[in-house]
Amino acid sequence: MFASPSSKEVLQCILQHKDNAYRLAYTYVRNPDDARDIFQEATHKALAASKSLKDVSHVKSWFYRIVINTALDFLRKRKNSVPYDEVTLETYGLSTHDAYRDFDLEHAINLLPPLYRSVVVLRYFEDMKIEEIAHVLNENVNTIKTRLYEALRKLRLFMNDENLKGGWQWITR
User: Fold this and answer.
1) Would you call 9 helix, strand, or coil by DSSP?
2) Looking at residue 19, which CATH number applies to its domain?
């Protein structure tokens, strides 16, 4: 039988992963104030629903799913109008060894549809396994693999110099 987490364990998880959860929210809204609001609302929802979580071993992915759903709700309320922000990847937690930012990659990731962007961010910036991403997004593992493959294909196409000349429209298809 699985152990049901207490509010204290949920709060402990939230505090441990607060920076990652904030960055995850930020990838959707690209606005620091909105991302903080989403994180705060997701925290409130998680604490209020802590009794509904059946297995303490899934608390992290459960909380990430709440953050994602809260961000998507926020975007729906705003009719998916997301202002473009030039400093998106700065908060993704890139390695301290990076001497410069890759603006083309930043821009390409920002232009990915939210479902693709989520998979890329969770896999490469949050270092989650495919199975964990599937659990967080409440999707089939094969769906996540397909989205990741398609997102990487689009990113590779963009990073090809020929596509830089052709504009940015291709990536959102």
Assistant:
1) helix
2) 1.10.1740.10
Q: From the CB of residue 96, how many other CB atoms can be counted at a distance below 10 Å? A: 6
Cα torsion through 15, 129, 72, 52, rounded to 10: -60
pLDDT in tens, 38-73: 999 999 999 888 888 887 878 888 899 899 889 888
CA distance 126 to 105: 17
- Enter the pTM of the model: 0.62
Other residues' Cβ atoms within 10 Å of the Cβ of residue 145: 14
Q: Identify residue 91 by its one-letter amino acid code.
A: T
* Same domain? 95 vs 79: no
Q: What are the backbone dihedrals phi and psi of residue 39, each rounded to the nearest 5 degrees, phi first?
A: -60, -45
47: left (phi over 0), alpha (psi -120 to 50) or beta: alpha
- Domain match, 107 and 138 both: yes
Query: Pick from 83, 111, 141: which residue ends a domain?
Result: 83
* CA contacts within 13 A on the Cβ side of 44: 7
